[in-house]
Amino acid sequence: MTSALVWARRRGSLARFWRGYREQRAGLWGLSVLLVIGAVAAAAPLLASGDVRSVADAPGGPMEAPSGAYWLGTDQFGRSLLGLLVWGARVSLAVGLLAAALSVAIGTLVGVVAGHYGGWFATALMRITDWFLVMPALVLAIVLATVLSRGLWTVILAIAVTSWPTTARLVRAQTVAVESRPYIERATALGGGHRHIMTRHVLPQVMPLVLAQTTLGISTAILTEATLAFLGLGDPSVVSWGGMLQDAREAGAVSSGHWWYLAPPGIAIASVAVAFTVCGRAVESVLNPRLGAAR
To answer: What domains lie within the chain, and their CATH numbers?
Structure first.
């Protein structure tokens, strides 16, 4: 009976959230864009052959302009840029999602622990957080990507390690606010331990903030991955949108005017980043109506 009541409340909360989200036109646009790009990435093996990523025996000529045979033209190896764009969506989205999830997980853990325990331990955690916060994130990510072995997991780790402090500070502030409420004192008086308080009472209250922060962090992670790949610090064995820009720069597409090599991956990166950003803002407005009213 209790379990059924809990699930009924969760379904009701999701229904109320969706009703509020549908009123956010920008959020709906962003969600539509993400669904389309996600579907394209999932169907990449059906839309483009895996051989399109190979530089050996590429069917097209180098740097061919868009045509009926190659809708977005070809690269310097004769590979279809449309096929590369489709396969690159998988890598860019995967890196963005995983890096943002890891970053938010680290920030949430640090924020909840610091807000719950307080004292010198919280002070030490916050000073470490401040150190990461004042460090230039891109510079630190470049250093990590340079020192560690090159690969997708290195890029994900570099992005996550440099982007968690903002989440940690937000979650800590929310945790302190939650723990000042009377029901936390009652739970403590009834014998609730630290783990019980943090997991059963504090974490559910900060999850809306965590969800919004994750959505916003994905766009930052995708842009950072594209920047690292553009600087030649990505995984050379995979195709990503940032890697395509790097290849275009090395092939001289900028100086030679081969716009069809630069425009598609650049537009794709910008579209996904904007879509995730407006979705995150919409989620914030739904979960925090006062924030939406202020805007």
So the answer is: 26-37+77-294 (1.10.3720.10)
What are the residues whose beta carbons fall under 8 Å from the beta carbon of 115, sequence distance 6 or more? 122, 171, 172, 173, 174, 175, 176, 179, 202
* Beta-bridge partner residues of 1: none
Residue 144: DSSP 8-state: H
**CB within 8 Å of 55: residues ≥ 6 apart:** 77, 79
Please state whether 140 falls in left (phi above 0), alpha (psi between -120 and 50) or beta: alpha
**pLDDT category, 50, cuts 50, 70, 90?**
low
Distance CA 135, CA 75 (A): 37
Structural Rg of the chain based on CA atoms: 23
What distance in Å separates the CA atoms of residue 91 and residue 188, rounded to the nearest whole number?
46
**What are the helix and strand counts (H, E) for the chain?**
15, 0
Neighbours of 271 (CB within 10 A): 15
Q: Is the pLDDT of residue 12 over 80?
A: no
80 backbone dihedrals φ, ψ, rounded to 5°: -70, 125
CA angle 155, 259, 262 (to 5 degrees): 5
Q: What is the mean pLDDT of residues 66-79?
A: 84
